[in-house]
Design brief:
- This protein is of the alpha+beta class.
- It has one domain: 3-Layer(aba) Sandwich (Glutaredoxin).
- The chain contains eleven helices and four strands.
- The chain has a four-stranded mixed sheet with strand order 2-1-3-4, sandwiched between helices.
- α1 crosses α6 and α3 packs across α9.
- The radius of gyration is 18 Å and the shape is globular.
- The protein starts with a strand and ends in a 9-residue tail after the last helix.
Length: 216
């Protein structure tokens, strides 16, 4: 079965919203998601961007927006105890089982714990509880999450995403085509169904035009 790369970070509410729709999307498309945990902050740094929570006006709007989308999708959205929050341990937990057939289930469960239930993903005990509930072995999880090889695996995965042009989460890549944002899942479906042209050459006439102004 063809896999769609799904780059995510649990700190992102839009990653959560996308994950709530992931199983239905797989069923409708006949494809599967290959979950790829990455460190969102590193993507932003590499692209010279700031996150929506780092500017107060945008932070306020973002939370209104995600609540509206959650209402429209019919999914719970409570939000984590603090935001932004350190998601590294949760990302490493997903990385431990990334190649397991149930990796998407774990991603959904961890994200739901934070955004749907208001649990603290900076607490390894919470992560361990979610890991166990999803059917994985959480024995000595804190030690495993702090192991240098696992830390490096997540760092390498993030670097590979940056090299592939990923600058935000969630991002989906299918057939070499990139779709950024939970709200672009509909376009991804159109592309997979053959109803959307490939990106190659589409924007070239616009990109070839000179920049007319720049902010100082």
């Amino acid at each position: 079965m063809t896999a769609i790369a799904f780059y995510l970070d649990f700190v992102s509410p839009y990653s959560y919203l996308a994950l709530t729709q992931a199983r239905r999307f797989e069923a409708d498309s006949g494809l599967r998601f290959d979950v790829r945990p990455v460190v969102y902050a590193k993507l932003l740094d590499a692209a010279g961007l700031v996150g929506p929570a780092e500017r107060e006006a945008k932070r306020r709007y973002t939370f209104v927006d995600v609540l509206r989308v959650a209402h429209r999708l019919g999914v719970p959205l409570v939000g984590p105890p603090a935001h932004p929050f350190r998601s590294l341990e949760a990302l490493r937990a997903l990385m431990l089982w990334r190649h397991d057939d149930r990796a998407l289930d774990l991603a959904i469960a961890l994200s739901t714990a934070a955004w749907g239930e208001g649990r603290d993903l900076t607490d390894v005990a919470v992560i361990a509880d979610v890991v166990t509930a999803t059917g994985f072995d959480a024995t000595k999880l804190a030690t495993r999450l702090s192991a240098e090889p696992l830390k490096q695996t997540l760092a390498d995965a993030t670097a590979a995403a940056i090299a592939a042009g990923v600058f935000g989460v969630p991002t989906f890549v299918a057939g070499g085509e990139m779709f950024w944002g939970q709200d672009r899942m509909a376009l991804l479906a159109e592309f997979l169904a053959g109803r959307l042209p490939p990106a190659a050459g589409i924007a070239e006439p616009l990109l070839a035009r000179p920049r007319g102004a720049d902010r100082r």
